[in-house]
Amino acid sequence: MPNRALGTFMAIAVLALLGGWAMVLLARSREAPPPLPPYEVPALAPDEPLPPPPSGRLASRQVLRLNNSAEPATLDPAKMTGLHELNVALALFEGLTSLHPRTLRPVPGVAESWDVSPDGRRYVFHLRPARWSNGGPLTAADFVWSWQRVLDPATQAKYASLLYCIEGARPGSGPPGFRALDERTLEVRLEAPTPYLLELLAFATFAPVPRGSVEAHQERWTRPGSLVSNGPFILAEWRPFERILLRRNPHYWDAGRAAIEEIDVLAISDAETALKKCLNSELDWIRELPGEKVAAAARLPGFRYAPQLNTYFFRFNVGRPPLDDRRVRQALNLAVDKESIARYLLRAGQRPARSFVPPILPGYTPPEGPAYHPEHARRLLADAGYPGGRGFPRLALLYNSSGSHQQIAEAIQHMWKAELGIHIALTNQEWGVYQTSMQNRDYDIARSSWVADYADPSSFLDCFATGSGNNRTGWSHAGYDEQLALAARETDPIRRMALLREAERILVCDEMPILPLYFYVNAYVVHPRVRGVYDNWRNFHPYQYVYVAAD
Fold first, then answer.
1. What is the pTM assigned to this prediction?
2. What's the domain range around 97?
3. Number of domains present in the structure of the chain
4. Average pLDDT over residues 326-347
5. Distance (Å, rounded) from C-alpha 105 to C-alpha 201?
6. Which of 69, 259, 310, 382 could form a disulfide with 520 if both were Cys (CB 3.0 to 4.6 A apart)?
7. Which residue, 231, 239, 278, 240, is CA-closest to 65?
8. Same domain as 534, residue 477
9. CA 267 – CA 166 distance, rounded (Å)
C-alpha cells in the first residue's frame, strides 16, 4: 500500500494495543505536524569572534523576565546537577573559562590566558584581576579551595568525578594536581591529555566559591545577603517556588559588556500558563517548552528550535529484583515503541534513541541498541521466570512533575501492559523531592535526562562508571569501566572513539541498566525584542551578551 496509508495503518495498529488512552495519540497522528526545521547541527566557524556589545536603540529598562520551569534545588555550584540550577549558575558564577554563546568553543573567563605543556598534561592558567561581588580579590587560591571542597566527600558533590581527569583527584590517589603558584597563577596537572579540558572548566562544578561566606554561613551561604559570587549578576532576592531576582554585578571583570540590569527568573511549571504570560508580554523568554506545546508555539514570532546534545531516558535500579536480571531490563527496553512515542505523542522533532550518546557529535558514531521487538521481549521475560508477566512483582515508575513526563510515563505503562502483561505503577514528585529520591536510589524505574557537560562521548558515558555520582542505578561492570579507563589514557583520537563506542555497546546493547527513549530538541520562545540569544546544541546562553532592544 502507499507509504502514507501504510503509516496510518501502522499507527492505528500500534495505538490499538494501548487501549482507550491511545486515542489521544491517534488524534494527534492525524493533525498536521508543526512547522519545524531539520534536525541538524549547523556548521560554525571555530574562530568566530565574540558578539559585539549591544548596538542600535535599547529599551530604557533592561529587565529580562524568563521562565526556568522549576525551582532550583540549590544555588551551590558544587552541588548542582540539573538544568534549572545551571541556568541560574550561568548568571552568578564564572570559571577559568567560559563558552562562546554561539559556537560553544572555550573562551577566556576568569583566566585571561593559559599555557599548555607539549605532552598536554600540564596547564598553567593566568588569572585576570577579577573580584568577588563584595569587591574582594579573586585569587588562584580560591580555585584551589573550591576544587578541594568539591572533592571532599562531606560536600556530597554529585559531579566530583568531573575532576578525575586531574592527577590525584580520584579518591585515595594522592594529593590533587592543582596548586596556586601565586595569587594569579594556577597550575593543573592531568592524569592524561584531556582534549575537552578547557570546555570542561566552564562547567559550574569548577566555579570558584567564596570560602569566607561558605564557612561563615554553612548551608545558608547561598541565601540573599550571604551569597557572594563572581559572575555577571548577583542574587538580590529568592522567593522559593516563585522567583529569583538577579541584578548586574558591578564588580564583574567585564561589567561594561552586560546591558541587562535585572533578570527575573520565574519557576512556572505549567507550560500553558507560561505561554499565556509570554503572549501577554509578561514574559520575555521561556527556556524550554514541552512537546505538546510546540505546535501552539511554533507560529509565534519568537519561536526557536535547535537539536540538543541531550538524551531522555529511564534508569533501572538494579539493586531491586527483578531489575537485577538483565533479561528483565532487556525485555522492558524491547517492549517500548520509541518511534510511536516520538512521532505521535511528542511531535516536536525528537528522534527515537537507540543509543545513549546522540548521533550528532563529530567523529563519533554510537552503536545502535536493539529496535522495538515485542516478541523477543516476551521471550526474555519468560526466560527470566515471568511468562506472560505472571508472577512479576509490583514496581513503580518515578517521574518529576513537569512537561510531558506524565504522558510519556502513561504511554510506556500501557506498552508494558499490552506487550508483556505486567503492570507498572506511576509515581510523580516535585523536582526537589524527585532529585532526592534519585540521589538516594529510592525508586524502581525513574525518568531521567542527560545533557552533555562538554562535547565528547565521555560526558555521557562517564555517568555510568562504577562510583560515579551520576550513576544512580547501582549498576557496575568491570568491562565497561576498563573501556573508559583505556579511552582516558588513549592519545590517538580514532582509537579513543573506538574504545568509547565499545563501552557504549556494553551499556545499550548488552547490559541495559538504562532505557534511552529519545534525543531532545530544544523548543523555546524568546521575544523578538530580546537580542543576543543564539541557538546551540547545549541551550547555553550567557546572559551578559543578552539585551532588550527598543520596540
1. 0.79
2. 63-250+527-548
3. 2
4. 94
5. 12
6. 310
7. 278
8. no
9. 36
